[in-house]
Amino acid sequence: MSVEVPRRIVILRHAKADWPQVADHDRPLAERGRKDAPVAGRWLAASGILPDLTLCSTAARTRETWKLFAHELPSRPKTVYEERLYEATLGELIAVVNETPDDVRDLLLIGHNPGMHALADALAGEAEEDARTRLDRIGFPTSAIAVISFTGPWKSVEHGVGRLEAHWSPRD
């Protein structure tokens, strides 16, 4: 695939999690999260974006979010459960994105804050005005989605490389 092909990174924060007496990695979704995850999936499906690859944190809440989200897509993309997405820093997230094979046009990342918010903010060198306003106003709540477009190989993804095309949340 040519490096001139437009690409998109879809950044999804996991749905609302519960706080039972378990290790953080094992926290399940709360009832609200189980309702919001499919709504987020329907939003992405309606946008016409179908990821070629999904990279999902190994945490229980992200895997559960993905399962509910994916049922709303017209087809399920290849999925890789990536340990490095759990508690990832901005630098670690960019490193993971940089490893994406160039035959992938649209990538979905499912992870956690503060990393997901930091990634959307850092990559968005430009933005649709309403998308930037929403990101600045509401941040990156649970089940939020940011869509960032850029042109070039995945290994070139760095601060300011993309355009924030959309920012959506089921709660605003």
Topology:
Layout: E1 6-13, H1 31-47, E2 53-57, H2 60-70, E3 78-82, H3 90-98, E4 106-111, H4 115-123, E5 124-127, H5 129-138, E6 145-151, E7 162-168
Parallel strand pairs: 1-4, 2-3, 2-4, 5-7
Antiparallel strand pairs: 1-6, 6-7
Mean pLDDT value:
95
Oligomeric composition of the shown chains: single chain
If strands are numbered along the chain, what order do they take across the biggest sheet?
A: 3-2-4-1-6-7-5
Indicate the proportion of strand residues.
Answer: 15-25%
Low-confidence residue ranges: none
Secondary structure tally: strands: 7
- What's the helix count? 5
N-C termini distance:
38 Å
Explain what the structure shows:
- The chain has 172 residues and is of the alpha/beta class.
- Helices cover 33% and strands 24% of the residues.
- The protein is built from five helices and seven strands.
- It has helices at 31-47, 60-70, 90-98, 115-123, 129-138, and strands spanning 6-13, 53-57, 78-82, 106-111, 124-127, 145-151, 162-168.
- A seven-stranded mixed beta sheet has the order 3-2-4-1-6-7-5.
- Helix 2 (60-70) links the parallel strand 2 and strand 3 (78-82).
- It starts with 5 loop residues before the first strand and ends with a strand.
What is the structure about, briefly put?
The chain is α/β, with parallel strands linked by helices and 172 residues long. 33% of the residues lie in helices and 24% in strands. The model has no long low-confidence stretch (mean pLDDT 95).
Question: What descriptors fit this protein?
Answer:
33% helix; 24% strand; 5 helices; globular; 172 residues; alpha/beta
